[in-house]
């Protein structure tokens, strides 16, 4: 059977994850979606649309979706759902995992790469993070989990923008892009969002299209002249200075930077350096992805990873007249940018 694409839905407490999920499950979109929830709370899926089987932890919706409550091991729950699907007991073509508001989505994402049984049945499609426009600035200041949820995202959806001034939303978007420049930012109003903006985003698939916010790239260029050659324990703020000088700065632990080069990499040197990088900084490297130009190769090489789990694949051929070069984005907690840049420079031909 074809692999089931899986979406991780995360966001801080009260951001609107469950409202969005309810909307997805109620709409007649033609998908049969299995949902795994860490817990059922009072605000979860309306009882009227559920048909509860008292012997199971699996709930069937009136529109063909199924919902599964999980308070134990995620791998076991994924296995149970896959087995029931294979046996024809339930039918679904997509999986959504809703995390609790205080959860770090990293371990959930890693599950799809670390367990062979899970990898046989599921493919991680994307991490979607719902961000509360009204409270996000304070949450990002006070809670590392909120920063991590933004850092892991393939897509960011802003809720409650209708009750926040436009200037505040702009300031929040600037901060979110500083933390994670590769995740597009959209808006969600009481859970209303086109299904195409939630499912089948292919945010985790290896491909040679690396989405990075162009404003962030411009800011990186602007920053380049002001960078300090700091070590791992540097206290300087390397975040971009190009966006807005008038607002208070927020020194987030989770931040991103982009590495680019128009010279090819030496394959052996790069493999060795990336291996050592992941070994040392893997726990702090939340998401990373890149399109790489290797010496002597007529095809692009695409790589990405979550923490210590890194993979690569052969991408499309370089086009005739297409400028060759490498572009890599790293998102993590207090990553020593200078160490990464210097090491990568030393791997160039």
TrEMBL record:
Segments forming domain CobW C-terminal: 254-348
Entries under InterPro entries matching the protein: CobW-likC_sf (IPR036627), CobW-like_C (IPR011629), CobW/HypB/UreG_nucleotide-bd (IPR003495), P-loop_NTPase (IPR027417), Zinc-reg_GTPase_activator (IPR051316)
SUPFAM superfamilies for the chain: Hypothetical protein YjiA, C-terminal domain (SSF90002), P-loop containing nucleoside triphosphate hydrolases (SSF52540)
One Pfam family hit: cobW
Gene Ontology molecular function terms on file: hydrolase activity; nucleotide binding
Position of the signal peptide: none
Catalytic activity: GTP + H2O = GDP + phosphate + H(+)
Keywords: Chaperone, Hydrolase, Nucleotide-binding
GO cellular component, one term: cytoplasm
Similarity comment: family membership: Belongs to the SIMIBI class G3E GTPase family. ZNG1 subfamily.
Function: Zinc chaperone that directly transfers zinc cofactor to target proteins, thereby activating them. Zinc is transferred from the CXCC motif in the GTPase domain to the zinc binding site in target proteins in a process requiring GTP hydrolysis.
Name under which the protein is recorded: GTP-binding protein
Organism encoding this protein: Noviherbaspirillum galbum
């Amino acid at each position: 059977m074809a692999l089931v694409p899986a979406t991780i839905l995360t966001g801080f407490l009260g951001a609107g994850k469950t409202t969005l999920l309810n909307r997805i499950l109620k709409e007649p979109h033609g998908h049969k979606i299995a949902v795994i929830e860490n817990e059922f709370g009072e605000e979860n899926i309306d009882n009227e649309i559920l048909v509860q089987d008292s012997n199971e932890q699996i709930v069937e919706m009136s529109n063909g979706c199924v919902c599964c409550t999980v308070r134990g091991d995620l791998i076991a729950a994924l296995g149970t759902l896959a087995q029931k699907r294979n046996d024809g007991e339930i039918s679904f073509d997509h999986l959504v995992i809703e995390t609790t508001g205080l959860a770090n989505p990293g371990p959930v994402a890693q599950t799809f790469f670390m367990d062979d049984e899970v990898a046989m049945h599921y493919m991680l499609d994307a991490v979607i993070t719902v961000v509360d426009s009204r409270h996000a600035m304070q949450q990002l200041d006070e809670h590392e989990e909120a920063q991590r949820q933004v850092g892991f995202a393939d897509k960011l959806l802003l809720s409650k923008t209708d009750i926040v001034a436009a200037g505040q939303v702009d300031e929040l978007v600037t901060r979110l892009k500083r933390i994670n420049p590769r995740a597009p930012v959209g808006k969600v109003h009481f859970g209303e969002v086109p299904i195409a903006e939630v499912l089948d985003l292919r945010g985790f698939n290896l491909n040679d299209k690396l989405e990075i916010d162009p404003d962030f790239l411009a800011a990186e260029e602007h920053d380049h002249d002001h960078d300090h050659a700091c070590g791992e324990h540097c206290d300087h703020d390397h975040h971009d200075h190009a966006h807005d000088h008038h607002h208070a700065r927020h020194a987030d632990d989770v931040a991103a930077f982009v590495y680019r080069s128009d010279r090819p990499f030496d394959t052996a040197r790069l493999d060795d350096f990336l291996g050592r990088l992941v070994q040392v900084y893997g726990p702090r490297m939340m998401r990373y992805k890149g399109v790489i130009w290797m010496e002597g190769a007529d095809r692009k090489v695409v790589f990405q990873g979550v923490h210590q789990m890194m993979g690569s694949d052969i991408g499309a051929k370089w086009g005739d007249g297409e400028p060759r070069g490498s572009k890599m984005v790293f998102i993590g907690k207090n990553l020593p940018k200078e160490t990464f840049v210097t090491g990568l420079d030393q791997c160039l031909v």
